[in-house]
Specification:
It is globular and about 50 Å long. Helices cover 21% and strands 31% of the residues. The longest helix has 13 residues. It binds flavin-adenine dinucleotide. Flavin-adenine dinucleotide binds next to strand 4, strand 5 and helix 1.
Amino acid sequence: MIPVVVRNVVTEALGVVRIVLGSEDGSALPDFDAGAHIDLHLPSGLIRQYSLCRLQAESQYYEIAVLKDPQSRGGSAEVHRLSVGDSLTISEPKNHFPLMRGDRHSVLIAGGIGVTPLLPMAQTLQKTERSFEFHYCAKSPETAAFSSALEKASFADKMHFHFSQVTGAGRMDVVHVLSCHSNDSELYVCGPANFINDILMQAKMLGWPEERVHREFLRRQIWRLLPLKTLLLK
Ligand SMILES: Cc1cc2nc3c(=O)[nH]c(=O)nc-3n(C[C@H](O)[C@H](O)[C@H](O)COP(=O)(O)OP(=O)(O)OC[C@H]3O[C@@H](n4cnc5c(N)ncnc54)[C@H](O)[C@@H]3O)c2cc1C
């Protein structure tokens, strides 16, 4: 467990805050690779996972961005109440969503707050001069965390924004995006479960091999027990 202090709180988009966490004594925090997340232990005792949403500019800081879930049982709402100077503890970074090695083209697809693990991936791919494209789907620029930073990033030419509620912009053409690269690329998807599942289904139909399709669900899958009768009828 690592003790940290909230060093900054910034509104990144409607309902999204970015929290800068710093080590207590100014020492370096452990290194991490793009795709990593930490467990955040909140003052109430709740523990929630958050992706490290940018590579470290300075080694004593981590950044997370948190969407306030309207159905929250507490975690994201509590993060939104944090202020500068609050003390917390975090786990060491864990990574279940790493970038693959090799020179294949990468297709990054984010839905909403799913941008958080993909942003450091884009930074890493750019830094290592690997080929990629980054599709960011959201309702509007106002709800899309980091949209203005991404428009100005060194990889801005690789960004494709798909704003479903902006006239003239519209939803991403999933089939088109996935068809262009099914033979030679790695696919990384993060966002709400139904968004990820739609993309995985299309990728499967278009012949993407399972081992080149990578995803991270930002929520535990909740399986409700079906009545026995329903199961027997299947
Ligand atoms: C690896 C990882 C990385 C993540 N990174 C980020 C990130 O960068 N930014 C971010 O905002 N979030 C991220 N999350 C999600 C985050 O951990 C929290 O789940 C999120 O903030 C919601 O927490 P909460 O306590 O507010 O909501 P919760 O109370 O946990 O509820 C979340 C949702 O689940 C539903 N729900 C809860 N319990 C049940 C139940 N028993 N039955 C049915 N439905 C239920 C609620 O209605 C609600 O919509 C990540 C999750 C993982 C696993």
